[in-house]
Design a protein that fits this description.
By secondary structure, this protein is of the alpha/beta class. Helix content is 51%, strand content 13%. The chain has two domains: 3-162, NAD(P)-binding Rossmann-like Domain (Rossmann fold, 3-Layer(aba) Sandwich); 169-290, Orthogonal Bundle (N-(1-d-carboxylethyl)-l-norvaline Dehydrogenase, domain 2), CATH 1.10.1040. The chain is built from 13 helices and nine strands. Strands 3-2-1-4-5-6 form a six-stranded parallel sheet, with helices on both faces. Strands 7-8-9 form a three-stranded mixed sheet. The longest helix is centred in the middle third of the chain and has 29 residues, at 166-194.
């Protein structure tokens, strides 16, 4: 199997990198905090000291970093020079479509193909390879990297064509819909509780019948259990970053999104209160506060 570069082993990147190592790939890993990737070294991965060192001539590098600035910071001339013609950079990060479009042009100028493949999965789902990938970019490059996505985290892959930013648009839509669903459930279960209906019964009835999807089932349980803080797998700050990107994209395309503005405000309030270790499910605390309920 070929050698793969992997940049960014945070909460989500770590299980994906681990899956690739266990699948038999030789994986060269760069993580800004080297210590967090040390267990992967014990599994057989090779840790390197720069993003460029994770690449090989004509090879594939996958990156999964926190935001646009981090993605731009690792997309250096040095990285592109090492990859060179025939090389592929797969960006699995949730970033602005505009950033992906600009980076695609930069990569193209040095003969490197840029594919966007943001991850739809929380860490446990990625570890179990039950995630979903949406991909956009050059056709040949997408075909080459599909086995890596399947080995790393994906149960399903959805192809959105060659426009580099398209996959990022869909990822932002998905994250908006999750955040809006958290708000919806927080308001609904608050209404149940205020009217002496057991919210756990409401949750069981609704998420096993009318709203049986994994978002309602999994995030609904977190809302019911008031599981808002403590070792978040997707922090409130990242959720706010994504809602900012949603609204940025909406403004650019003149798309009114009042619900996105509401969940953005909820997350801003959580961060303003400096809630310790807040998962983005903590946005539900706003609806509970408004209803005079404790958590």
């Amino acid at each position: 199997m070929e050698t793969i570069g992997f940049i960014g082993t945070g909460h989500l990147g770590y299980p994906i990198a681990e899956n690739l190592v266990r699948a038999g790939y030789k994986v060269k890993i760069y993580n800004r905090t080297r210590e967090k990737a040390l267990p992967l070294e014990q599994l057989g991965a090779v840790l390197v000291d720069t993003a460029a060192a994770a690449a090989e001539k004509g090879g594939v590098v996958l990156s999964l970093v926190a935001d646009d600035a981090a993605l731009e910071a690792i997309s250096t001339d040095a990285l592109l020079e090492v990859l060179g013609p025939g090389g592929i950079h797969v960006s699995m990060s949730t970033v602005s479509p505009d950033t992906s479009t600009a980076l695609s042009l930069r990569h193209q100028a040095q003969g490197v193909q840029f594919v966007t493949a943001p991850v739809f999965a929380r860490p446990d789902a990625a570890a179990a390879k039950l995630g979903n990938a949406v991909i956009s970019g050059p056709a040949a490059a997408k075909e080459r990297i599909k086995p890596l996505l399947l080995a790393g985290f994906a149960k399903n892959i959805f192809d959105l064509g060659e426009d580099a930013g398209s996959a990022n648009v869909l990822k932002l839509i998905g994250n908006f819909m999750i955040a809006a669903s958290i708000e919806l459930m927080a308001e609904a279960f608050a209404l149940a509780e205020k009217n002496k209906v057991d919210p756990k019964v409401a949750y069981e009835m609704l998420t096993t019948t009318l709203f049986a999807g994994p978002v309602f089932r999994n995030y609904g349980a977190m809302v019911i259990d008031r599981k808002f803080t403590g070792s978040p797998s997707f922090g409130a700050a990242l959720g706010l970053k994504d809602m900012d990107l949603v609204l940025q994209t909406a403004r650019r395309s003149y798309t009114p999104m009042p619900m996105a503005q509401l969940v953005q405000s909820r997350l801003t309030t959580i961060l303003a209160k400096d809630v310790h270790d807040a998962d983005w499910t903590s946005l539900a605390m706003g609806a509970l506060d408004d209803a005079g309920l404790t958590y």
